[in-house]
Specification:
531 residues; alpha/beta; seven-stranded mixed beta sheet; six-stranded antiparallel beta sheet; 20 strands
Length: 531
């Protein structure tokens, strides 16, 4: 049986975009199936009635920006769209610590093995640090806090997938105006801009200073013939004599239209939740992949994410200004409280300001009206929402002992949803250590921290960095895929995303996911030739 494609890639985040790009560059006929939309700057959510929400059970009705999943004691935040998690993450593109790979990983995957791929991804995403003349108030506060507690040597700026103009600074007239963004064309032929510190990293950078995957790897893949199909929800994977059939629903005009494609190989890159759920359904519901190991779904991690806001009575922090995260204090050596964690500054978009600007932009366009709107826009941009709040953020090496599985709905027992069995007991000490450091950093700078009752009372967490579920291992007894990302027992079926990371990395995982995807692509290319 001849296939229309050599490879079908499911998802277009840090795993899918990279594997699609590299395979296409080497002559593979590649199809990318992405559940979300292809977003344009004019479509980014800003107003209350915009497409904010993705609903997994009814994507034909709600296929917006944010997919927020609620499990017992855990919320998981994801993005839906061409570019996957790169659309919503906080730009931090940092390598995992060398020591992370010493425990729980196959011997073939080490820091030294991944280093060339780390470097490759950094070049592709034009990684930079915040320029010295653009330091945010959060950055200055973090540095001061670290030095006052004797941790100055642990403080550092973090690498960001953001393009900066060294001439931009806070002293410009109306500095956050988009007009200060300098346009340029990247090596993939895409027009971008430079950062104006608008704070919208998590809800779509309107000047395209954020180097999201839809501006580099994905257009590079398309230049080499890859097809990218947005609004395609994959439902099932079925083995064939010489490949796989992928069944999906195409979302169009509020309807789900069934379809399918076949290829010699399939690469799942739907994220920790998406890839794990799809394989669980193929094994337990559709029975098309019955031989997948019972280890599927085990060793899931939230990567220890936590945020502690602090207020300052006489200091402006301005968390809605600047890149969402800019710097960190590294405690991953475990020397503090015998726990491993990584403190970062946090930021968030000025949602009300964005709404007001969007309303202004839809106002009168005659000359007199435009002058007025420009003046009002400057007032909106100069407002400093929650100016006295410091969002202390961070990640940690948690126990990575969660389990994803399919469970029945109590109100509709004939249907099954993805569920999470999560016990905080083994991870609680490291979260407490991170929170305690947030408190100490606040106190050192005369701030008043507020630990949410969702933690103090309910022990609930929120993570944008879900990891595991299809873990890399050495055998089906301790993993779902081997070091090449290939599913045990199913040749040419791969997973390349955060689902294969077997342990928490304790800091932002996107670059490690990207490096693994580069390596998996390289091994596929070296092992086979396209038809």
């Amino acid at each position: 049986m001849a296939h229309a494609f050599d490879a079908i890639v499911i998802g277009s985040g840090f795993g899918g975009a990279i594997t699609a790009c590299r395979l296409a560059e080497h002559g593979f006929r590649v199809l990318v199936l992405e559940r979300g939309r292809r977003w344009d700057t004019k479509d980014y959510p800003r107003k209350p009635d915009d497409a904010w929400i993705w609903e997994q059970h009814e994507p034909e009705r709600q296929n917006g920006w944010l997919d927020l999943r609620r499990f017992n004691d855990m919320w998981v935040a994801q993005c839906a769209g061409v570019g996957g998690g790169s659309l919503i993450y906080a730009n931090v593109f940092i390598e995992a610590k060398r020591e992370v790979f010493n425990v729980g990983w196959p011997a073939e995957i080490t820091y030294d093995e991944l280093k060339p791929y780390y470097d490759k991804t950094g070049r592709m995403l034009n990684v930079q640090t915040l320029p010295e003349n653009q330091l945010t108030e959060r950055y200055k506060l973090m540095k001061e806090a670290a030095e006052k507690l004797g941790y100055g040597s642990r403080f550092r700026p973090v690498p960001l997938a953001v393009s900066f103009n060294p001439d931009w600074n806070y002293n410009l007239s109306d500095p956050f105006n988009n007009s200060h963004s300098k346009t340029w064309t990247n090596p993939q032929g895409q027009q971008q801009g430079t950062c104006v510190h608008c704070g919208n990293c998590d809800i779509g950078c309107q000047v395209k200073a954020k180097n999201t995957l839809d501006l580099n790897y994905i257009p590079q893949a398309e230049r080499h013939g890859a097809q990218v199909r947005p609004l395609h929800m994959v439902r099932c994977i079925t083995p064939l004599a010489n490949g796989y059939r992928v069944d999906f629903d195409r979302i169009e005009n509020g309807r789900c239209i069934p379809g399918s494609e076949t290829a010699e190989r399939v690469i799942l890159s739907a994220g920790s939740l998406g890839s794990t759920e799809l394989l669980l359904r193929c094994r337990d519901q559709h029975k098309t992949l019955p031989g997948i190991t019972r280890f599927l779904g085990h060793n899931w991690s939230s990567n220890g994410d936590f945020l502690t806001p602090a207020t300052y009575s006489n200091r402006r922090i301005s968390p809605t200004q600047g890149p969402t995260i800019t710097c960190a204090i590294d405690f991953l050596d475990g020397s503090v409280d015998r726990q491993q964690f990584f403190v970062e500054d946090g930021g968030f978009p000025d949602v009300l300001g964005n709404y007001l600007e969007a309303k202004l932009q839809s106002g009168s366009k005659d000359r007199t009206g435009q002058v007025l709107l420009d003046s009002l826009g400057k007032i909106v941009r100069s407002r400093d929402a929650l100016a006295n709040v410091m969002p202390w953020f961070g990640q940690a090496i948690d126990a990575a002992d969660g389990r994803l599985y399919l469970g029945r709905r109590w109100w509709a027992p004939w249907k099954k949803d993805l569920k999470l069995d999560w016990d905080i007991a083994r991870s609680e000490p490291v979260i407490d250590a991170l929170v305690n450091m947030h408190k100490r950093l606040s106190a050192a700078t005369n701030g008043t921290p507020w630990v949410p009752p969702s933690w103090t009372v309910l022990k609930n967490l929120v993570t944008p960095h879900p990891l595991g579920g299809c873990n890399t291992g050495t055998t089906p007894e301790n993993g779902v895929v081997d070091h090449r990302g290939e599913v045990f027992g199913y040749p040419n079926l791969y997973v390349a995303d955060g689902a294969i990371i077997p342990e928490a990395v304790g800091l932002n995982p996107s670059r490690t996911i990207a490096a693994l995807a580069e390596r998996i692509s390289d091994l596929i290319i070296k092992g086979v030739k396209p038809s």
